[in-house]
Amino acid sequence: MKYLLASALLLAFTAQAQVYKCESNGQTTYSQVPCGDDAEAVTIDVVNPASADAAAPAQNAATIKASETLDRIGVNIKKRDLDAKIKRLERQAERQARQRDAEVAKINSEKGRYVQNLYGVLHEDKINSAIVAATTIWNTRIDATNQELEKARAEYNKL
């Protein structure tokens, strides 16, 4: 029943006409009857303007569905890009932490080379200050990366 109704609506919306295409004296003409031996039969689909208005809601629904599909595709692309950014930032934060630890270990290795006298104490204070400075610099970088990472995660979770 549903297909019968759809077929009836389709027939009401469109019609076909067969016309003949002829060329004479370099000009192309169209006619309902063959206009010569060289007449070529052409089928033309004609849309009833009144039926086109009736088909508008279906076209609008299709347009809305297509728009929704494009929106979903856009969201998925944005999620994919944010996921890649999150992974990149996680790797960056891990790399920065390893670099910080390596630099602190390198500075710390200088402690044992000096004897425990006044020079050794002064040198150890200098090394401790260098460790604090290096740790502060790296922690600032890591914190900035983590803040950017949290923003990206929050944006991802909104989608």
From TrEMBL:
Residues 7-59 form the DUF4124 domain. Keywords: Coiled coil, Signal. Residues 1-17 form the signal peptide. This is DUF4124 domain-containing protein. Pfam families: DUF4124. It comes from Arsukibacterium indicum. Residues 79-106 form a coiled coil.
